[in-house]
Amino acid sequence: MFTEKFKHKYALSDKGVSNTKKGMLWTVVVNLVVMGGMGILYMMMLQFMNTLTENQSLNKLWLFIIATVVFILLSVLTHLQQYHATYGLVYGEVRDMRIGLAEKLRKLPLGYFGKRDLADLTETIMGDVNRMEHVWSHCLGYLYGAYVSTSIIAVVLLVYDWRLGIACLWGVPVAFALLFGSRKIAQRNSEKSKKAGVTVSDGIQETLESMREIRATNREEICLADLNEKIDRHESVMIKGELATGLFVNGASVIMRLGVATTILVGANLILSGQINFMTLFMFLLVITRVYAPFDQSLALIAEMFVSQVSAGRLMEIYDTPTVEESKDFKPKGYDIVFDNVSFAYDNEQVLKGVSFTAKEGEVTALVGASGSGKSTCIRLSARLWDTTEGRITVGGIDINKIDSEMLLTDYSMVFQNVVLFDDTVMENIRLGRHGATDEEVLTVAKMANCDEFVNRLPKGYDTPIGENGARLSGGERQRISIARALLKNAPIVLLDEATASLDVENETKVQQALSHLLKNKTVLVIAHRMRTVESADKIVLLKDGTVAECGSPKDLMEQNGLFAKMVHLQQESTHWTIKE
Q: Which of 246, 258, 416, 537 could form an SS bridge with 366, CB 3.0 to 4.6 Å?
């Protein structure tokens, strides 16, 4: 029971708990060995005093030399073992932690990432793990080892002389009581600092991503002032938190060190009353120098341990996020996509309500409707990028919510309006469609997607780096690379989300030609506003306020003279007006 609480409190694995115990054990051994060195020094001083007062010879000098050599050897060996246990083993724990987090995130539903602030998630994976690494290596073993070794030494001192023992040790529990009493304050300050830090990260990322818009609207000074305000707020929160922590830590250190004064006062009084001799007081003064030493580092870092529990809680929140056991076996009977009374809510806001339709294999099913009607949500739900709130979606008769996302998406190709490319060559960006594809296969699909036209103008052809997110390419060129990637994958289901919405007429024609190769004999679900895309569809699903308002072929819906017919007429009138103007 204690082990489980300890694991959760400090976000440790079973191996991490075992390593912490090893670090604690060797810290105890090191502290006791060092205390043994103080014992050798005390015995040497006692022999020296006897020589001065009783004219005894130093006939046991060789024993002290041997004891000192043994002490040095033991000290070196135990310190090396302590270093390995408290530092060396921890780095393996950090590696396992990051790999474990990556594996956990890989298994979570993709909708989880849509609901989480990505800057906050990045801070958890990088910043919180770094903080826990410092706690695991510098705090846990040292502090808990100091608890045990000090308890052992305290028992010995109290047995030897309880009066000097109390005078020597009373400051330790009082100092730690003060620190533990400040724990909630430290954690509260840490939470504020963490939120302020994430706000700064969000602000920097937003500013960098929107630099063109910022300059185009002459808002540089406003945006920089806003960013400076966020940074100043973060700095202010951190200073207040550090100041509060520093006051408690230094106060605890002063209280603990008062034990030196009380030991001298009590010892002097006992010497004057003839109850102890000077060498007894000398022994306790030697012990004091080592009793407090293990806590010197711990006192400075114990506040970090309190703060680390906030980081540990954030890490465990990811680990504790439930995952559903999903099947790796996905063998559908065909590739019809069926929405069966599907509802979906995002942050308690109802987006879809009882949506039902079928996108048949070998046909193009177009989703149309006003902005906010639920088209993009249907696309995301059909690929299980999000999970349905109610109802179910099947592919070939199989409920996709019961299928592992990675296994499911092997049968999907997606082409979205906002293409994501990597800072790599054209060749490697296309090869993402299918790992291990040959250069010949990549070149074949690139030609089908009309990529040759612009790639041949690049300095190194298909081996030309295209910059971050394809910064050196136009929107139409990026789109054609995305289509080539989908062609290379050659999946039986194709999802298109406004794939040509932002293109000019010439680029749209080229992209449409590329799409014609991609869509042959596939189950196609497409979002489109332009009638050029819609008129070639086999089925139209018109969404309004998250429900299916009309469903049928373009011809049938035009004959019904309903909402779809009205949309077509409005777009035609808009086109004629634009040409006339």
A: 537
